[in-house]
Amino acid sequence: MNRRTFIRSSVAGLGVGLLEVSCATAGRLKRDSRLKGAFRLPKKNGWTYVHLEGTPAEVGYQHGYLLYKEIQDGAKVKILEQTHDGRHDWQFFRHAAKDMMWPQVEREYREEMQGIAEGLRARGVKLDLWDVVAINGSMEWGYYVRQQEQSHNAPEHCSAFVATGSYTKDGKVIIAHNCWTNYLEGERWTIIFDIVPAHGHRILMDGFPGFIHSGDDFGVNSAGIAITETTISHFSGYDPKGIPEFVRARKAMQYSASIDDFVRIMKDGNNGGYANNWLVADRNANEVADLELGLKNVNLWRTKDGCFVGSNFPVSAKLAREETNFNLSDMGESANARHVRWNQLMAENKGKIDVALAQRFLGDHYDTFDKKIEPDERTLCGHVDLSPRGAKDWMPPYGPAGAVQNKVADSAMMKRMSLSASAGHCCGIDFKAAELLRQHSDFSWQAPLLHDMDSEPWTSFEISK
Fold first, then answer.
1. Residues lower than pLDDT 50 in the chain
2. Which residues, in sequence order, are CB contacts of 214 under 8 Å at separation 6+?
3. Which stretches does DSSP call E strand in 210-310?
């Protein structure tokens, strides 16, 4: 029987957890100065909490070392997804990461990704720097490839809102978001990162293992800024000479102390990759904003008394016309149907919105097109796998995809750097992989990596003290 040892870690709001490690690993944790202060906690209600701190190289090394199993597993998913259609092999993306993305990555984030690769190597994982960069760029590869093919096909991701003033129960800011993606990714998009960088602001964010950014972009920082987004559907346009979105998104999370900071960082070197409507809350100014960041069209709206919603629709008709082939009049389109529902919920609940209501909104199943309660691709809690009639921007005529996790934070939570999160569909519906694979054999290519995704309870996380 192997001898084991335990390291006891305490995180405010999480209680005390036991991190089981081998004696050899415990020795390395003691000896390797790069791991000083870093730890991870046992999985809680589907989420894995990891604390990283130090220089970029140290933060990266801790990330790769502590999450090596999750990164290795997540890399298999990313490689499978990017290469499934057979048009490009993984080497194509590695080369593009090295030749196209890397020259535009500033030193701080180069060092962090190099650190991740070194942490993985210390654990015996055969992924190198270009794999790490290609994984971080995965949200942008579709935009890069479509730009080469001159096509519009950006899929929908996420439902979100931000509100303040007369819309909220306490008159202060609140922000909420659920991530939409396929279940292969979604069941793994369950890391809570608590990062204390050597420079900039402390960050608490959700994320995918191996990402230096959140990816679905929900986080709060110690300067009182909270950030999220939803993608712009049917978007085209990509500048390979620009700064990758994952770099700008992480930098904005780390260095923004105001809405102006956020806008400046996201616009600087904008490459059009992963084009989003960014929703931002500033708890100090009690202000919220919507930055619609296309490649040619950039629009900003902000208010201290109002709300902004996101469900993958273009806000600006000019952007829709010039940079998408999105039909703003098609109310059967998921983005439009969910936009209608957000507006209904904001109007009906004006002056009452709090964390409990935000959590309820993210699990909403009202289809405004069919005018009935039915979980499908047109509801805020998206269930594409339950939609045999098909969702236009997913995997017709059905697909194991939809809302995969959920987050909420209000002003009080932002002050103490806390968020509430629910893994899986927060509505209570579980996804069972065997059932879908039994009914739809054309998804058998996912079988080795597709697992069950249970609906987990809302759970509070906050920074370690």
1. 1-27, 152, 154, 388-397
2. 193, 205, 206, 207, 249, 250, 253
3. 219-221, 225-231, 276-282, 287-293, 298-303, 306-310
Question: How many angstroms separate the Cα of 234 from the Cα of each of 88, 99, 158, 198, 392?
Answer: 22, 27, 14, 39, 11
Of 371, 311, 361, 358, the closest CA to residue 339 belongs to 311
- Dist CA 297 CA 314 (whole Å): 11
The tokens describing 284, both together, are 């100090």
3-state SS class at 355: helix
Report whether 394 contacts 184 (CB < 8 A): no
Taking only the tens place, the pLDDT of each residue in 195-206 is 999 999 999 999
Residue 50: HSE in the Cβ half-sphere, 13 Å Cα cutoff: 24
Show the tokens assigned to 149.
Answer: 């093919």
What span, in angstroms and rounded, lies between the C-alpha atoms of 309 and 430?
26
* Identity at 272, one-letter amino acid code: G
Q: Decide the pairing of beta strands 191-197 and 225-231.
A: unpaired
Alpha helices in 67-106 (DSSP H): 68-83, 90-96
pLDDT for res 20: 37
The residues that bridge with 221 in the sheet, in sequence order, are 203
Element (H, E) at 137: none
Amino acid at 418: S
Query: Which residue has tokens 């002056």?
Result: 351
CA 142 centroid distance within chain:
16
Domain boundaries, the chain: 153-460
Q: Which CATH class is domain 153-460?
A: alpha beta
Q: Tell which residue, 127, 141, 115, has the closest CA to residue 53.
A: 115
Give 352-372 pLDDT, tens digit per residue.
999 999 999 999 999 999 999
- Report the Cα 256 to chain-centroid distance in Å: 18
Q: How far apart are CA 262 and CA 249, in angstroms?
A: 9
| Phi, psi for residue 326 in degrees, rounded to 5 | -75, 135
Q: Which residues contact 319 (CB under 8 A, 6 or more apart)?
A: 232, 292, 294, 296, 297, 299
